[in-house]
Amino acid sequence: MSIARIVEISSTSDKSFEDAVAQGVARASKTLRGIKGAWIKEQEVQVKEDKVVGYKVILKITFVLEDTA
Q: Could you tell me how far CA 12 lies from the centroid of its own chain?
């Protein structure tokens, strides 16, 4: 049996949504062990002078809790 936990994070990139997701998962993996998946809850672009200048995602990261026994 395994128990998982879900945390919500936000991540930004000036390149793409895919890059924002990759950066978010990479950063989360520095703190969380046992990441099993990520769900994109929201996407948003940042606009400046009528041009897209940034990409933001809100991710739900799922990771398995370690057995302490």
A: 9
**C-alpha distances out from residue 19 to 25, 50, 54, Å:** 10, 22, 11
Q: Is 61 helix (H, G, I), strand (E, B) or coil?
A: strand
pTM of the model: 0.86
Which residue's entry shows tokens 């936990």?
Answer: 5
pLDDT digits (tens, 9 = 90+) for 31-63: 999 999 999 999 999 999 999 999 999 999 999
For the beta carbon of residue 55, count every other beta carbon within 10 angstroms.
Answer: 20
Question: Do 44 and 17 meet the contact criterion of CB atoms below 8 Å apart?
Answer: no
